[in-house]
Each structure stands twice: as C-alpha cells, then as structure tokens.
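anyone else get weird line breaks when pasting these?? whatever heres mine. first is seq + tokens for prot A
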Amino acid sequence: MFFIKRFIIWGLILGVSVTQILLYIPIFTCRSSGKNVLCSPIYKVQLIEDSKLTHDFIATLNELLRLLSYLTIDMGWDGEITTPTIYDNGYLDKAMKENNIFKVNYFGYCKFQDSKNDYCSRLTSSCLDLFGTIAKDMGVYLSRYTSNYKTNPDVIGSSLQQFYYLTLLSIYKFLKMDHKNDNNFLQILYGIHNVKVSDTIHVYSDSYKSAVITLYISMISNNVLKDLLLLEFTAVILLFLAISGFGALLFIWKKQTILPLIIMIISIISFMLSFFSFASTLTNILSLKRLERNEDIIENGWEMLQVTYGSGFIFACIRHSLQWVILILGIVVKKYYSVVPKPQPVIQNEIKEEEDK
C-alpha cells in the first residue's frame, strides 16, 4: 500500500498533462480544405450588412482585387486568360460580401460564403489579426482563378498579406512623423489655412491615427502570440517527458533530486507562457468587439463586425485553467518528492570548543 501511495500525485499530474496536450490539437485546425473540414475557431466574424462603413470597406476591397486581377491579365502572369471578358466576370465582386463568415484560428482560417465552406488556408504570421487575415484571403481568392497558383494559393495570399503589413508600417511611421510636425502634411494636402478647419483636421488625424495604431499593435502582438503558443506547446511536451521519466524512477526511488525541480520549473514557465497567450487572445477578441454595434451605446461610425466566440476559445479557457492545476501539482511534487538533506551530526568536542569561545 505504501508503494502505491507514492504514485498517486504522479498519476494525477500525468493525467492532467496528457489532457493538456490533447487540448492543444484544436489550435492546429482550420488549415486545410476538404469535404469534412475540421475547424475549431477562436472567434467567428461576419460583417454587418446595414453599416455604411461595411459597404465602403467591401467596395474598397473588391476594387483593389479587381485592380490586381487587371494587373494579372495585363502583365501576362496567367497564360490561360487571353480574352478581355474576364474583366466583367462576376467572381471579382464575390471576394468579399456581407454574408461572408470568417472562422479564425491561431494558425489558419476558414471562409464560409452562403452558409457553405468555400476554403480554408494556413496563417503563418497574422495569427488572430483579422485584417491581416482578410488581406491574405484576398490573395488566396485571386490565386484560385489564376492557373499558375491554383495548386498553391498561399503564395499570392502570403505576398498580399506582407504587402498589407509593409503598407501599415509605412503609414504608421508617416502619421507618427506628421503628428510631430503638427499635421503640416495633412493641412497642405487639404489646402487648409484657417484655424477652425485646421482644428477639425487635428480631430480627424487623431481618429485615423488611433485606428492605424490599433492595427499596428494588432500586427505586432499577434506575431508575438504565434511564438508564445509554439513555446507554450513545447514547454507542455517537455513537461510530459519530465513527468514520464519521474514516474519511471519512482519504481526505484521515492525521493529524487533533479526531476522534481525540473517539473516545478517547467510548470512555472508553461504557466507564464499560457497566461500571456491567453491574455493576448482575449485582448484580440475584445478589441474586435469594439467594432460591434451596441444598442446601448451611441454609434461612433466604426461599427462593422459581428463577433462571436468559437469552440477554440472554450478549449483555450480549459487549457489555461489546467495550467493552474499543473502549477500547483508541480510545486507539490517538488515539496514531497525531493531529497531533503540530512543535518550533519555535531561532534561533542566542537560543541565544547564553541562554548569555550
């Protein structure tokens, strides 16, 4: 019975560790298309149909896609398209519509149109950044009608996404510099010389600067989030290996020196990584919800999205909750399974010498 007791805590932390690993499987879904698409998104997004900003946003994206299509044809990048009838093809106007639903995960997304799954694609850098995902989707959509890239649509998608990020970075640096110069460029651009209208430009400049900063922070934070998730998953795997090795040695020794310490250290590291990744995930969703329409709040002109939590977010909550359990069990393992150094016996003569001194 005493021999079995030493495996109770080990069996508990091993079971939690295995469950934790299985809960990481959903983060790698929403990456490939097929008949039976497996997708467990962090959030689902649909554009609001009766929003002026939504109509302007969709019209801008479709016009940009049409321009890219013209360049594809005029530069001869697709040899199969030789007639100008492609200019009037309706597919150019279907790239982005109000009924489009994006299911976004950490490393992939799926696009649904008319309640049907159109396709899924991998995300290498944008992670939960919605507008970076939309930029890639435009490239993926365009490549599906370009013969040279039909087999690998991620090529154009990744290129267009990179173009979006470089453009965003340039605009961010420009607005930052122009703000230091008292928005002189905007005043010259609009031909403004009177004070009242100039003050109005300051208001609009601050508003758009705030939007650009938000997009810029989303780009940077999601790039970091991708690395955090990979490090977190690696830490969980290492923790499982350490727990397995610790359990094997329990058959020989109950008290150990190195592995209990390693288990506690990895438990702390994985908890910290999980905390920051979960906080970043929650921040991404809450920032998108700021673009939702709220009947209790006066509209500010930026309402364009309808955001709902996905099943992947529920798995993320469970994973983070289990990290608390693993952290506590890791400390317990260090406390009850570590070798306690025995006190050295004190020689009587040394005590006597100490007393004489």
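and prot B, same format (seq, then tokens)
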Amino acid sequence: MLPEFGGDTAYSDNFFVGRVGGVATYRNSNFFGLVDGLNFGVQYLGKNERDSANRSNGDGWGASLSYEFEGFGIVGAYGAADRTNAQEAAFYGNGEKAEQWATGLKYDANNIYLAANYGETRNATRFTNGLTNNSGFANKTQDILLVAQYQFDFGPASVHRFTPSPKPKTLKAWVAKIWSTT
C-alpha cells in the first residue's frame, strides 16, 4: 500500500514537501480532545540558503487540516515561503513566493482502499531543462494521484496507482511540465 495521502508526485525537502529540514511543527489530534478525527498542524519554515538554489528556501509557513470518520477521510494543506534571491534570478520561475497546496480524499474500509490527491505548486517545483541545461522552478504545476487497493482475505493485496498529468496549454507550460515530472 502507498502511504496515506501519497506525496508520490513531488520532490522531498522542497519547501514544505516530504521530509523537510529547518521546520518547527505543532500537531494536534482530535482537536484538543473535543472532536474525534479532526486533526491539524502548523509549521514554520526557517530560511535555508544551501549551495544549490534548487534546494534553498526563504522563511515560510504551512498548515494542514484533516478529518477522518467511519472509513472516510479528507485532508487539505497549504504552504507559502519566500524565495531566495538566487531562485528569483533563475532562468525559470517568477515571483517572490513559492506556494504549494493539496487536498485529498480516502475510503478505507471493508478490504477496500481508495484515495485521490490533487495538488498545485507555484514557483516551488524545481526542474532542469534537459535540452538547454537551464534550471529553475515551474511557474505552476498540477499533480494528481489516484490509488485503488483490494485486500484479499487470504493475505495479498492488489494495488493500482495512476498519476495522470493535465495537459499544459502553451509550449512554455509544456516544456515546464515535461521537465518537472518526477
């Protein structure tokens, strides 16, 4: 089975995605004991200028909210961070901020697991154009992850994963989409 709420279409340690360094995190389960299944988290991301602009970030913040009940779950998350001067000067990517948001739904009961994630980034998904060797951040990406699994009573599970990419409408968007896939 894939991890809950996936993350398979993104880099790790990229602003707020995956295992990230330099963050302070607060998580709360069951909303202070008042609402079963309602969870939230907030994060502060400290400025981090590494040797590579592709792995650096400015100060930022993020938050997530999830609710689970009777085998169903829903989650949403948002993060925004300042970009470094080197990132703003990169060949690709515009703007002073990097933003990421995602939402997901799941059903996990009766030997069936179904999940769907949708997320977007703005100036937060790094890539290198293999033709020109220029690098930077895609102005916008859209990521979809769909998972279906059936757990057989005698042990094994059948898992199917699908990660379609929406078709960009311009040549520049197409090049960015091609070189930003993971």
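btw re prot B: Residues 174-182 have pLDDT under 50 and may be disordered. The longest helix spans residues 171-180.
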